[in-house]
Amino acid sequence: MVKLDRLINIVSRYGARLHGTVVDRAVEIHSVAVHDPIRPHAATGDVFLAVGAADLAEALTLGMEARARVIVARTSETPDARIRQLLDDRGPALMTVDPSVSWSQIASVVYGLVLEGRETESGRGPSDLFALADTISASLDGPVTIEDQLSRVMAYSTAHHDTDPVRSDTILGRRMPDRVRRFFEEQGIFAHLARSDAPRYIPPAPEHGLHGRTVAAVRAGRELLGSVWVSGREPLSADRARILQEGAHTVALHLLRSRVSADLERQVESELVIELIEGSPDAEAAIGKLGIPARDLRVIALQAHAEQERNAGILLAFERATTGFGWSRLGRSTLFGNTVYTVLPAGDDPAPAYRWITDIAASLPAHMSVVAGIGGSADARELPASRQEADECMALPAATSPAPPCYDTAWDRVLIQRLRSMASTGRLPSRDPVAQLAEIDERAGTHYLPTLKAWLEAHGDPNTAARTLDVHPNTVRHRMRRMRELDFLDPDDPAKRTAMLIALSIHTG
């Protein structure tokens, strides 16, 4: 089962074009039918794959006979006025796919979407993890929680008997409380899960609000995917421990199935976003496949770091950025190097970009730090420039404001940073005024460099420069008078003032 809106968005990413007026894109799609020339009238389904249809007219006739809501035809033919009128009158959606895309690929995507199962809270994969948690709970007569490798809740049983405070806090917070996680680490529970599939019993710990637990690893091959926790004041019998192990194995299969579905969509989205931020000659087509507007966009660059967890932060940030299907998210994201780039409809107001960063940061564990930058507003073809601006904002030194830099307001700092970078790529003159003043300061203990920098930044106002240096204005006047006596310095030349200010920025950092 899948919503029509999601089906249209995903199939569109494979080059399909939608024709006709779709009245209710929130309608649920439950079945798929494929045209069979031997038994042409036998198939009915919500999605009709018009394999072998001679033209669009035949595809439309067969699809309406199958009572389909969506008709998929593999053709380069464009609907004529008669077909468009039929679509408007009769209501089905028609999607035409370029002949370069194989029917096997189309069918695999459509069948995968429709028959995958109900969606999870995160928007991906089968929601029967909750049903599985209920099944394991009934077999073991205890409340069950299924968690991922970062102790985040993926599913839990609905049984409420013998629920302790730890389980309630875990479900409400969607993650195991940090104090309980630290307790389990001290008990060696996570080390056990990393190396063994055998269930491990944890005795009650009233001081932590814990009645007792038995936990088993959820593993695919050697990779730890998560864990299954069963509440109980006593250890499980051998038979029940075996049931828990079998349940953990079934959970692993569900998670792998969900991962395949999620990775397929992420891969398609990621490739299109990379194409846009690197510069695409067909940017409008890529934007159309992503299902976002072609104008008023911004690129967000984000990095997440965690001590002693190499790459964990950025991988988790990418997972959170792509949680939910395309139709349920504002932005489209990719993981490129060690940075998550998101193309977000924001326009002249960067507020949606700030909210997006705030939401991502809030979804990450507290020990992970986030740095980000927001590029300027751009249309589809200008996204490479917005991406560069986002990178440059992210690279700016930390400001006093907790908000990440946005190019709209940080353009001056970005420009200075660009000038500094360009100036530092070549060799600076060894006898330029800044270098010579630095030698005098080091030899004579003067303060010419900081005074000249403050004076230039104050546009020659000694009072403003004095406040910056925390000295008397007469001190600034005296130092500037002494510097004017040096034959290599000409602070009254506008071009030299600009060049010296850039050189001072490089020299003083």
Automatic annotation (TrEMBL):
It holds the Pfam family HTH_30. Residues 448-505 form the PucR C-terminal helix-turn-helix domain. InterPro entries: CdaR-like_regulators (IPR051448), PucR_C-HTH_dom (IPR025736), PucR_C-HTH_sf (IPR042070). This is PucR C-terminal helix-turn-helix domain-containing protein. The lineage of its organism: Bacteria, Bacillati, Actinomycetota, Actinomycetes, Mycobacteriales.
